[in-house]
Amino acid sequence: MMYRSLIRTSTRQLASAARPGTVRSYASTASQPFDWEDPLGSHNLFTEEEIAIRDTAEAYCQERMLPRVLQAYRDEYYDKKILEEMGELGLLGATIKGYGCAGVSNVASGLITKAVERVDSGYRSGMSVQSSLAMGGIEEFGTQELKDRLLPEMAKGKLLGAFGLTEPNHGSDPGSMETTAKPHPTKKGYLSISGSKTWITNSPIADVLLVWAKYSETGKIRGFVIERKDCPPGTLETPAIKNKTGLRASLTGMIHLDACPVPEANMFPDVEGLRGPFACLNSARYGIAWGVMGALEDCITRTRAYALERKQFKGNPLAKYQLVQKKLADAATDAAFGTLAAIQVGRLKDDGKTAPEMISMIKRQNCDKALSNARVLQEVFGGNAVSDEYSIGRHVANLFVTQTYEGQSDIHSLILGRAITGIQAFV
Ligand SMILES: Cc1cc2nc3c(=O)[nH]c(=O)nc-3n(C[C@H](O)[C@H](O)[C@H](O)COP(=O)(O)OP(=O)(O)OC[C@H]3O[C@@H](n4cnc5c(N)ncnc54)[C@H](O)[C@@H]3O)c2cc1C
Asked: How many domains does the structure of the chain reveal?
């Protein structure tokens, strides 16, 4: 099938959807049949354009990505052509305006994310890092020269990005990072960056690495765009981390920098401290809150189909048993609530009315609920849950990672607890 590119359609779409509320149409409240796939009718909250974008993304993901994921997960293989295909459809950096990006609403971008993660959280991670963390960071904080030069190629998926914040000794506490940038001792106009980052999505194949390091002149954290092609041999290594137990269809690696020369012009000029990385993470965490609802919905669809098919005791399908029905009811409720919360935050984000804590709340809640429900639904498959052919085990393993990265859930509890009490408990 031919897929419609968002780039060709979205400028027109967005002009009419600039204030989504003005084009949204609310369905009548007359009695409607219950739709177990959209229990609270969230589709009524989408504009026509958002529905068209969702359908384009879902069709691509189901027809082109899904057939590849099982083998990719077995082989721990990430096909980087996927990012090019997404680029052709306008799915990368989709909320960015200009630079060849589609410029869609935050809800539309959430729907794209959900479609991708319905297939696999690893594929969504590859996309999120490219779109929200690397492109989003450059767009928000980079110089005009960096934006003009890098964003159009990144939007096409021709240049791949990575985001290096986590270090071997500093994960939840990135403020203690050890990576440093200091004036280069011999190259004028250059900085010298040294240190190690770990658990970095896309790092083994990334062309553009957005790395956060402490700047020796001020002791403050700054963002640096490192372009692999310009790094002399031995100054940048990005080994893959193999034998993962989750997110196996995504590439993860380290970043080792040994006096790597980086032009001063590649340092983000106006952002200091953790505000920079946290601003990028906010957008990515918002996407995760949407994405995991896609993975949970896929678990529900697969569990329902299995429970209707599989018969135990007097030829009854598993779906006839109350305990099984409760598992499905709990999961469908959490998926519907989580989706509505993500839509609400997306609308506020479009209007510039989000507090970071709102994003902590939906990231934490949706990841926790997706993981706990997926683990319970897995039980319905009995022994077959152990076979990767049923996909449920893959989602469960992936969802553990989504609950852990970009702020482990307990860390988001502390962020929320600080906002509620005024007392910070990170110690
Ligand atoms: C597959 C994968 C991909 C990733 N991709 C990226 C990427 O692209 N870029 C990037 O920068 N990072 C990435 N990460 C790293 C990820 O963000 C970190 O793993 C995460 O921030 C947690 O850090 P940590 O693993 O060091 O855990 P730790 O910080 O050691 O935490 C371990 C546990 O202790 C808890 N804990 C820590 N401090 C406290 C406290 N004060 N109070 C209570 N509990 C606490 C945590 O909640 C957690 O449960 C990725 C990780 C994985 C697994």
From this structure: 3
